[in-house]
Protein 1
Amino acid sequence: TQNKGADIGQLLQQMQQAPHRVYDTILKIHTKSSHAIRDDILHQLCGSAEIAQKIIASFAANPALGLAGADGWLAWKGMPRGTPHFDGCLWDPNEQKNMKKIWSLLSPGTPMPPKDAWAAAVSSFWWSRG
């Protein structure tokens, strides 16, 4: 069955149900049928306490940091180009419409950043600010 975006929708619902909770960082994990993909991404983001602590410390040290993803599993519009094999497929008009809708839910009244600042953690595994 088609469940494209179901993980993001559920995350947004959970965030809306807990508005009084404040978190410094959030680790978003999504199931994958490929064990190799899942293991690679999980190892890079939380394969040890040391890895997780370094990522959390990066958020504390850099207020401009908003997203941390696994190497090889990121895409972005600006230069230098994001992971080459994901370039383009994330930015089709339908995906852009979905991104704008999610942005309006997460940051109402705040203009969406310019396209050259867009970034995505491919496969729905990432660390972000709470």
Protein 2
Amino acid sequence: RAPEHLGGDWKRHRESVRASARVSGGGDTPFQFGSQYTHFFYTMQPVYPFRLLATSREFCVASSQSEDDCESVQFISGAVLEAARNATPTADGQQGRGQQLLLSMGINDCEAKLARIPMARVWEMLRPLPGEKDACQVGGGGLEEG
């Protein structure tokens, strides 16, 4: 499937949301140098053995020329949680509503950009792996809310 597009412009409890990149090449690629960069979010168990809990589908950074297309060379290199003012947990205990993830990235090996994505959107993108109940694991691992 084609990756989702992330238009330009973490923490739920205490486990981390991370972004990772994948480069694919060869075959019928429209890119001059034969690569397509995509990214995905994932969560891990907050304590040893740090088991993978959930992943998102692959996504790409929207091109500045066309939001329906991906930048051919893109790499998300940093992510910082921006806490929202007056952010409160929802009735189901989720935190992260109203918060945004600030992503720093390189585009085409010549530009640096920043983008924000609401944490609510990140949590919607995550799908628990088979055998996992949720994209997040809280408690039972010696963690305390705080």
Protein 3
Amino acid sequence: YDLGSGVGRAVLHAFLEFGVQRSVGVELASSRHKQAELAWRRLQAAGFEDWAGCVSLVQGDILQEDCREATVIFVSSLCFSEDFMRILALKLASCPDLRAVVSLQRFPDGINGFAVGEDWEGLEMSWMVGKDRDQVRAFVYLAVHGTGTQPPP
């Protein structure tokens, strides 16, 4: 899942490169969502029409979207307030199958049921073209209890 998926680059990249069973993007802005849908239609027309059920692009509020089946979530959170990040952390902590969260901003109080993993530095982002990539850092949160956030029985 990509929460705040913009024009769908990460969603489509995950589908193409990593062989995920399902890649989902949620974007609030209708203009960016429409661009993501256009990119997906072009990809399908280029030979991926049989994979239609593998990619879902949703225009909506990430706090309202049901992401309980997510196993990995990416959040391009640079513009989110600390209060929003706290609310999002509560939502993510309730996802039973979630194994990892990658965010471009730290969650102020962490995510319940997750440990802070190793930060990733120097990430390449499309909006950083021609700029110093060392500025982009991601914060990784890993589920503490095996494959999900719930403790084992």
Protein 4
Amino acid sequence: MAVALDRNNSPRDIDVVPKLDCITSLMTSVKRELLREGWMSPRMHRVLLIEAEIDSDGCLDSACNRIEYIPDSITQRKSSDFVRGWTSVWRAACTVLQAGLAPTVNRIRTQIKRSGSADRNYQAFLKKGGRIEY
């Protein structure tokens, strides 16, 4: 079943929330209490944290993990600043996850600003079409 996307290419809440509510209503109260922020399972949190730790350490100018998820039209213009900006996004996501929080776009953006990573590399990443959502 296809999910309609909003103008930011994200699923609309009207499509996602009812499904989430349905799933969580079937869980026991013990299982629901384990969810982070009401939706993220501990297992998913752990997997995301491991991936963020690996990817924040694994970006080099010649190769970068998860960069295949960025559209080709954007990665064709990639530079070393772009890759270092992408690494800043992963480092920020890692920090957010280490704090036990869900890695939302706003939290990652705030962490980038807080850590001082909103430097020329991150700006180059944005200027060349990069987005935290990737």
